[in-house]
Structure formats: structure tokens, C-alpha cells
Amino acid sequence: TDLAHIRNFSIVAHIDHGKSTLADRLIQATNTVSNREMKEQLLDAMDIERERGITIKANTVRLEYLADNGETYVLNLIDTPGHVDFAYEVSRSMHAVEGSLLVVDSTQGVEAQTLANVYQAIDADHEIVPVLNKIDLPASEPDRVKEQIEDVIGIDASEALLVSAKSGIGIHETLEAICHRLPAPKGDRAAPLKAMLVDSWYDPYLGVVVLVRIMDGVMKKNDRVKFMRNGTVHQIDKIGVFRPAMRDVAELGPGEIGFITASIKQVRDTKVGDTITHEKKGAEKPLPGFKPSIPVVFCGLFPVDSAEFEDLRDAIEKLALNDASFSFEMETSAALGFGFRCGFLGLLHLEVIRDRLEREYDIELITTAPSVVYHVYMKDGSMQELHNPADMPDMTHVDHIEEPRIKATIMVPDDYLGDVLKLCQDRRGIQQELTYAGTRPLVVYDLPLNEVVFDFYDRLKSVTKGYASFDYQMIGYRQDNLVKMQVLVNDEPVDALSMMVHRDRAEMRGRAMCEKLKELIPRHMFKIPIQAAIGGKVIARETLSALRKDVTAKCYGGDATRKRKLLEKQKAGKKKMRQFGKVDIPQEAFISALKMD
Ligand code: GTP
């Protein structure tokens, strides 16, 4: 296809504003799939994505559209993940296209994620076409939302499209706008090959599939190509496009988006943002802007049943094949036995992986508290990255500790503003901005990531009854007064419960943790002290009193079946406990104890 007839675009939107529904309509309207094949939300491939209503892997589809001017255009839609954890993938896919549809729910307006994503599009120099969706709903307020888009984002919304992705209104206009308002890609067919690696994933039949955007040059089947990042060379086995099923093509030229397979064994060998060129007469310089995505949140995953350790290893290795941004190494814990210390791009990423392990591989897991990566500066001048509070070096050798910080953007209705400010303040936030997006307050805070990873988002949802929207980006490291807090149960430290806390908040957290554990740990035949300590100093203490035998005897009574049932339940419950010293700690304690209410 000649460049003038190609349009590459993505759709940016806040969650639930209708991105997938609009993509489905565009696919349908261009007859890319027959109605029979058309499944709702075709682009969300994995079940788990569908259930959670989130799109994780970037997907792509090539549409052919006969426009009103009688010419046929090739429209490549790259579906970007909407969640902040995948910000780097979003940024790469943005650089692979020239324009975006900015979908805003006209009953809601601009939200925090709309902002984060649209700024990525603006950074990538996109032409942006605003689309006001859900105009079929009585609560739709297109004029108000247009004004808001201009005020808050600062882009012209006078020609925003009025669309109902659900009932099919404005779909034709959207296709015309893509052809006439978005620019054609640029590129030089005669120049050495430069293809951007936009995404890659593992396919059980084909091996690693690589999504590419050709910038310059031409890529053909059997070409020998070099991945410039690490210099590996592969021969292309298969080259094609997504319609949305895979279809082979003879070649991909400048401006085109498609896939290749090349007998690549692991997704790890294909770094998003890398440049692919020919082995011979290739490009000299890679495309700019490559940066590897690095895990920022770590936690331990342990099998509830320690006999399942090998199964867990297999499952983790399989998942890692398909997810280069997820890291793992073996870990042993005195309390939890053998498991893995795993690194994730963010909390959502962690949840997705944990869910898949439990659901697809049927392994019950204990997840330890997520921790961020601290920079521990030693007195000898060296720096250690601390992924696990249990590994914290002796404080006498430590000079200072730095923690990662984020810039959080929160939008919230006026009524809840006070609660949100209090929440951010409680989490050691520093206010950067408090402005209005139209009539809604928009607050920007500089917050320590470790105050956010655990339950910030849940708390935010609950104090605002679900009306707040939240987005964040990492802004770097800063020194603070951080200490390691240990928890001792029956005078023995439980490594899986150690955590890094700010010194000023240690007492409060320690007390809350001991109180929680007191509720969560069942009573034993003996008295159990539960303590929080910094170094050798106890800062909080609770005592779990001993169980009195006659209480149980009474409640079992004389009914034999009931007694047996209770005993069975006890046995099942026992399996979920972790024996620690002489004390059984239930699995939920490891996670609940760290939640702050
Ligand atoms: P994620 O994939 O989770 O980011 O969400 P999304 O932005 O893709 O939203 P999705 O397309 O899943 O739509 C969210 C909800 O809004 C679904 O229940 C849709 O049926 C509904 N919806 C989408 N477009 C319209 C519309 O034009 N009108 C109405 N009434 N509902 C719509």
C-alpha cells in the first residue's frame, strides 16, 4: 500500500469510556470480520482481561475502508493497554502510530486516565480527534464535555465527533475522520530497514510473535534480520497482518504494521522499543527512545501447600515466557518455606499474574506484602537495591535510604475533596497542585510509592464511593527517614511480615499490625506475645491470651456428625496455616495485617 493511503492510530480513553466497544464497531463497519465471527470485545483476548474489563496486551488490527471519496484506505488500529502499570508499552505503541481517537464518555467527562493517556499521545506528536461517546444516553452532555476537553487538556474540541459506539451512531463519521483528519505515515522504502518492535508475546503454535511497525525499508519472508538491542540475528519464518486473525502477506513496507515470527524462543529476547533491521546493509543507528521496562513492585509468592513448590516453579516459568516485564528468583522464608520473589510493573500487573497462577495453574498462593525497590546507601559509598525488607543490611553500616516517589493525579467530585486530601496527607503526600477541570477538582500529589502500593487505590475508591479517578507516574528517588520494622510472634521474628516504614509512622503501623494479628491468629493453648520492633527496640505489643479447654468442649456438645464436620473444617483450615515456631499463623494474616484501615 502506498503511504498516502495508510492511517495508523490508537484509541485513548479512561477505563469504561467505550474504547473496546468503539474498536468492535470499526471492525464491524469495515467488514473485517463477518457478523457471525464478531464477538463482543473482540480485541480483549484473554478471559481474565474480559472479566476485569481491562485490556492488558497491546493488540492490533488492520482494517480496509472504502471512503466516501472512492479511495480505499488501510487503517491500522493499535489497541493500547489503558492501565498505568503498562505506561511504557503505551508509550511505545503511541510512537508506532500518527494519530489518536480520544474517546471521552459524554456522560462523565475527562478522567485521570484520559489525561495520562492523552499526554502520551501529545508527546508522540499525534493528531488527535476527540470522540464524545455514549451520546445515546439521556445523561450525555456533549457541550459541557467539549468545553472540559478544551479547558483541561487544551486541544480543540469544536469538531469533536458525536458517537454512540453501542448503537452505531457516528461510526461512519469516525472512519471518515480517521482518513481525512489524521496524517499519513512517512517513511522511505529505499532506505535501510528500520522496524520498531511494538510488542511481542508467546503463541503455543508459532512461538514468539513480534508486532512491528516499519519506519523505513521493506521486510520480507526469509529475510535475515537483526535485533539491534542485543545483536541477535533471526530468519523471518512468517510475516503477516491481523485482520484480526493472522493473515500472511508478501512483505511489510514503510508505514505498515504487522507481525513476524522468526523461531525466537523467549519473549525475553524481544525487548519492546527495540529496532529490527537487516543483518546485511542494515541501519547504523537504532530508533531513539528505547528504555527497558523495569519492575517496581516486588512481593513473595509461596505455595500454600509446600508440596506444590515445583508446580509453582513450572507455572511461573511458563508465564515468564510470555511476559518479559515480570521477574522472579527463588526465595526462602522461615515462615513460608520455599517460594519466589517476583517483580512487577505495578500492582495491577501483580494481581494479574497472581490470579493467573491461581486460576490457570490451580495453585493456592500466599502473597507477601508488596514492597517497592529501595536504594540503600552504605557508609562505604556503595548502593544496594533492596527488593525485600527481609534482606535489609544492618543499620550500623547504612548511611541513608532513598525511596521511589510518584506523581499522582486524582480527579474527584467536590464533595469528596476533603477526604482525598486527608488520605494523601496521611500517606506522606506533598501537594503539588489543586485546580479545577471544569467543575471537578484535580489534585496532583507527590507521594512515596510504598504508601501507594498496598491499598491506596482501594482506600481512594472507598472514601470517594468510587467517584475518584487516579493515575500515577514514577518521578524518581528521594531520601527519607526509613527503617525496617520487624514483627515477632511468640518472640520469634516473622520475616514475611517485615516491612520498611517511615520512622514517624512506625509506632502507628506497628500498633495497627499487632492488633490485626491478634485478631487473625487463633488462640493457642499458651499465651502468645505479638510485638513490632525496630532493631532491638519493641515499639508495639499485644498479647493473645491462652485458650481455655472447657470452652471448646462445651461448643462441640454431643452431636457426633456436627463434631466430625467441625473437625474436618479444622483440618482443612490447618492446611492453610503456617506453623511458625509453635504458632500457627493463618495465610490471610500475611496480607491483611499490612492493610491499614
Ligand atoms: P476497558 O477495555 O475496560 O478500558 O473499557 P473500554 O473503555 O474498552 O470500555 P468498553 O468498550 O468495555 O465499554 C464500557 C461499558 O460502556 C460497556 O458496558 C459498554 O457496553 C458501554 N458502552 C460503550 N459504548 C457505549 C455507548 O455508546 N452507549 C452506551 N449506552 N453504552 C456504551
Question: What does the model show?
Answer:
- The chain is of the alpha+beta class.
- The chain has 14 helices and 34 strands.
- Strands 11-10-16-7-8-15-12-13 form an eight-stranded antiparallel sheet, with helices on one face.
- Helix 1 (19-29) packs across helix 6 (171-181).
- Guanosine-5'-triphosphate binds next to helix 1.
- Guanosine-5'-triphosphate is lined by residues 13, 15-21, 53-55, 82, 133-134, 136-137, 164-166.
SS element count, helices: 14
- Describe the global form: globular
Note the gap between the termini: 58 Å
Helix content: 25-40%
> Structural class of the secondary elements?
alpha+beta
- The fraction of residues in strands falls at 25-35%
- The average pLDDT score comes to 85
Strand tally is 34
Strand order of the largest sheet: 11-10-16-7-8-15-12-13
Radius of gyration: 27 Å
Bound heterogens, unique: guanosine-5'-triphosphate
Low-confidence stretches: 44-58
Instruction: Outline the biggest β-sheet.
Output: 8 strands, antiparallel
Throw out a few tags for this protein.
alpha+beta; translation elongation factor activity; single chain; 14 helices; T_Tr_GTP-bd_dom; 597 residues; binds guanosine-5'-triphosphate; six-stranded mixed β-sheet
Map the helices and strands.
Elements: E1 6-13, H1 19-29, H2 47-52, E2 59-66, E3 72-79, H3 87-95, E4 99-105, H4 112-123, E5 127-133, H5 142-153, E6 161-162, H6 171-181, E7 194-203, E8 207-216, E9 219-220, E10 224-227, E11 232-235, E12 238-242, E13 246-248, E14 251-252, E15 257-261, E16 275-278, E17 297-303, H7 309-321, E18 327-333, E19 337-344, H8 347-360, E20 365-367, E21 371-372, E22 374-378, E23 383-386, E24 398-411, H9 417-426, E25 430-437, E26 440-448, H10 456-463, E27 469-480, E28 482-489, E29 492-493, E30 499-502, H11 503-520, E31 528-534, E32 537-544, H12 549-556, H13 560-575, E33 577-580, E34 583-586, H14 587-592
Parallel strand pairs: 1-3, 1-4, 4-5, 5-6
Antiparallel strand pairs: 2-3, 7-8, 7-16, 8-15, 9-14, 10-11, 10-16, 12-13, 12-15, 17-19, 17-20, 17-21, 18-19, 22-23, 22-24, 24-26, 24-27, 25-26, 28-29, 28-30, 28-31, 31-32, 33-34
The structure holds guanosine-5'-triphosphate.
